[in-house]
Amino acid sequence: MTDAQHLQRASTHNTKYIKASQDVLYQAFTDPMALATWQAPGDMTAEVHRFDGRVGGGYQMSLYYPESEESVRGKTAGREDRYTACFLELRPPSRIVETITFDTGDPALIGEMIMEVTLEPEGEGTEVIIVFKEIPPGIRAEDNELGTRLSLEKLECYVE
């Protein structure tokens, strides 16, 4: 990647207070059945194809756009965003860092982005902080923020 391409890559930051413990939330980020339930934003659905919950391991997952959606905008196929995540850091119950690479031939979507999840206890719940770095230029930062916010809403429902 050239320096110019590196500079074009965006970052996003989302925060949500969820009335659940760090342990419960950490489990939701590191359990394949939980990920398939809450990680797909909005009306999307998800499927985890493989999972290895160790540093250096990771998972492959597909997010599917609903059939009712008229526009075809999947990164991998018409209605599918398939990606591979690799765990760089797993520090229970407070931090997860992973890289995400989309299964795509589109040069604007190629490359690793980094997702950092921090779980900070606050009162009777936990502040969930998700920072994405190095977002490929084919993904608009505002779309990434919206998708993350919608996923966090699903996470809240899942754990509460």
TrEMBL record:
Domain of life from the UniProt record: Bacteria
Activator of Hsp90 ATPase homologue 1/2-like C-terminal domain span: 19-160
One Pfam family this sequence matches: AHSA1
InterPro entries registered for this protein in UniProt: ASHA1/2-like_C (IPR013538), START-like_dom_sf (IPR023393)
Family: Belongs to the AHA1 family.
Protein name as annotated: Activator of Hsp90 ATPase homologue 1/2-like C-terminal domain-containing protein
Species of the source: Dictyobacter alpinus
Taxonomic lineage of the native organism: Bacteria, Bacillati, Chloroflexota, Ktedonobacteria, Ktedonobacterales
